[in-house]
Amino acid sequence: xxxxxxxxxxxxxxxxxxxxxxxxxxxxxxxxxxxxxxxxxxxxxxxxxxxxxxxxxxxxxxxxxxxxxxxxxxxxxxxxxxxxxxxxxxxxxxxxxxxxxxxxxxxxx
Length: 109
Ligand code: 5GP
Ligand code: ZN
Fold this sequence. Notes:
single chain; alpha+beta; HIT family, subunit A; globular; binds guanosine-5'-monophosphate
């Protein structure tokens, strides 16, 4: 999608260090971290938002990558949050999961 910053990152038009990537998914640090670890799990294809997510293969892959990254980042047992902003709460209209941690036991909504 033209003018979508995450599509530009997916196409390599904006250089970005990936914590993980494959043909469908990319993972990178949030530019404005809200916790010591704040990563984004992003499908490379443009999916506008959560309500437009109907690709079960990609959705399942995002879940799997999120689980692996939580473990890899060492926060599996240290308190973490997985967040999707939607319905206008999001800044970027290209679906992504936020993972933040460690949060300890303070991770209450
Ligand atoms: P949203 O509010 O859409 O769920 O969150 C978008 C997130 O993307 C924000 O946390 C913001 O800091 C992050 N972000 C925005 N632009 C960039 C960018 O160019 N690079 C990276 N790594 N993160 C970005
Ligand atoms: Zn996009």
